[in-house]
Specification:
This protein is an all-alpha fold. The chain has helices at about 5-15, 25-35, 55-65, 70-75, 85-105, 115-135, 140-150, 155-180, 205-225, 235-255, 260-270, 275-300.
Length: about 300
């Protein structure tokens, strides 16, 4: 994982693959042209990289799409490896799918003992590993909001990330609704993934727990993945463990959302706990803002941001 969840993660991925423009069809055509030059009696040089490409599934599919005239329409949007050319589109797609999977595997976990905290912590760890090189692996509007506050992300891009994350959480909840036999749309309070305070927990208690748990998560994100030198490939593990630690402690009082998308998604799908949804969201964004403020004092804002009247 790179030293920045948002800026450097996606950029490294683009630098590695963004300049490749040759498709499999063009490569094979070039190889065929070199064979035509062998008419002089000299054996053409062997191309070990592509001599067996006829049996590869991507080549078969691309040949079919080429004959159907579809590849000509797709080439402005994807490069020769099949990767989407637009970096922002790749990032939003990664945030959508990452949050979808996070909601599906975390939200459907049984809310008993340490099962749910472990499922959510391990799922977050795995999914940050999976998507960090593309989008930074935020998977949480609170993280995107905090990075916007410290200048690591433009405000409009942060809002687009948040929208993708909320949509991902909604679709994740819809998927496990169709997979759990007794679960139905609009099933109300108590549905898997819904958050509400435990008996005896006040609104102030919800605000305090969600604020501090989100603060822990976002501070871990900054220390492990944003600030330099960071913790390299162990950063997703630290982030997942911070969620696990928070959930196993405060989850018994609030359910441990720490994530506005994870709060909104099930609330829409199951029509549950609407009176508490705003309280959870405000608490989580407030915790993220506090973590961003402390991170500026400890690690500094994004050094690439120019301050009015000063140099970089």
């Amino acid at each position: 994982m790179s030293s920045s969840l948002e800026v450097q993660g996606g950029r490294n991925y683009t630098d590695k693959y963004g300049e490749e423009t040759q498709g499999l069809v063009e490569i094979r055509a070039a190889a065929g042209g070199s064979q035509g030059q062998a008419s002089s009696g000299q054996a053409p040089p062997k191309n070990n990289s592509y001599q067996d490409d006829e049996g590869l599934l991507p080549v078969i599919l691309e040949d079919y799409l080429e004959r159907a005239g579809i590849m000509d329409k797709l080439r402005p949007y994807i490069n020769g490896t099949g990767q989407i050319r637009n970096e922002l589109a790749r990032q939003l797609l990664a945030e959508f799918w990452g949050t979808l999977l996070f909601q599906m595997f975390g939200g459907s976990a049984p809310a008993k003992d340490t099962t749910a905290p472990a499922a959510n912590g391990f799922a977050l760890c795995a999914l940050v590993y999976a998507f960090a090189n593309i989008s930074g692996g935020h998977l949480n509007p609170a993280v995107s909001f905090a990075l916007m506050c410290t200048g690591h992300m433009k405000w409009w891009k942060s809002l687009m990330y948040m929208a993708a994350q909320i949509l991902g959480a909604i679709f994740g909840a819809l998927i496990y609704t169709s997979l759990i036999p007794t679960l139905r749309l609009g099933s109300g309070a108590g549905s898997p993934g819904c958050f509400a305070p435990a008996n005896g927990t006040t609104s102030g208690g919800v605000f305090g727990w969600e604020t501090m748990m989100t603060f822990l998560l976002v501070m871990t994100v900054y220390a492990a993945a944003v600030a330099k030198p960071g913790h390299g490939n162990t950063a997703p593990l630290a982030i997942g463990l911070s969620l696990y630690a928070a959930a196993i402690s405060g989850g018994q009082y609030t359910g441990a959302s720490l994530n506005p998308a994870r709060t909104i998604g099930p609330a829409i799908v199951f029509a549950c706990n609407g009176s508490y949804t705003v309280l959870y969201i405000v608490s989580e964004f407030f915790g993220a803002a506090c973590a961003a403020g402390l991170s500026i004092f400890l690690y500094g804002r994004n050094p690439d941001v120019r301050v009015r009247g000063q140099g970089l």
